[in-house]
């Protein structure tokens, strides 16, 4: 991969991948989105996750399933998820775009909060979607989950930029370009508000919503909610 000179800075690539490609991805992923059906997946512990499942164009019942897992504070309709899903669908795969707990507007499905150690419910969801043929693809924190799911189920996995050291990732967000910290803190605040709105008797995040770094939010979250 040799980008043009104006696209070589890493920050430019990050922003361009999220914004500049949207119209192209929307066009390529139109069949993926239009043909998707929402599936509720209940784990052995009663946790409900949701996935958007699209059958391949030829409707082959034997097509292997690829489960795509988004990154932290992302969702199954993110640009990179739809882009990967569209390509897989074109290649004849059944595509399942999974929402992790509390992501993609699913805050109301489970009273407990999402955190990155909730592996079992993701393993159960992937197992239900894949059956005996398929694999898992994950991005960032989703890549971390993909590797754990692969180990648990013996499935092939592809992890794109997996977050293997969460503490290092958190420090990089807080100490790097301020735009990233603002982006993640804003999205985390939004997620906390949505969870509190879904379960007002359980949660009051007013103190957490005053915090302005990922590290400070994580400290409160670990101390009070895990």
Structure at a glance:
This protein has helices spanning 10-19, 22-28, 30-34, 79-90, 119-130, 141-153, 166-175, 178-198, 214-225; strands spanning 37-42, 48-54, 65-69, 94-99, 134-139, 157-160.
Description of the structure:
- It contains nine helices and six strands; from the N terminus they run αααβββαβαβαβααα.
- The protein is α/β, with parallel strands linked by helices.
- It has two domains: 160 residues, Alpha/Beta hydrolase fold, catalytic domain (Rossmann fold), CATH 3.40.50; 62 residues, no CATH class.
- It has a six-stranded mixed β-sheet with strand order 1-2-4-3-5-6, sandwiched between helices.
- Strand 3, helix 4 and strand 4 form a beta-alpha-beta unit.
Q: Work out the number of β strands.
A: 6
Helix count equals 9
Q: End-to-end span in angstroms?
A: 41 Å
CATH-scheme architecture of the largest domain: 3-Layer(aba) Sandwich
Query: From the alpha-carbon coordinates, what is the Rg to the nearest angstrom?
Result: 18 Å
Amount of beta strand: 15-25%
Category from helices, strands and their pairing: alpha/beta
Number of domains: 2
What topology does this entry show?
Blueprint: H1 10-19, H2 22-28, H3 30-34, E1 37-42, E2 48-54, E3 65-69, H4 79-90, E4 94-99, H5 119-130, E5 134-139, H6 141-153, E6 157-160, H7 166-175, H8 178-198, H9 214-225
Helix pairs in contact: 2-4, 5-6
Can you tag this structure with a few keywords?
226 residues, alpha/beta, globular, Rossmann fold, 9 helices
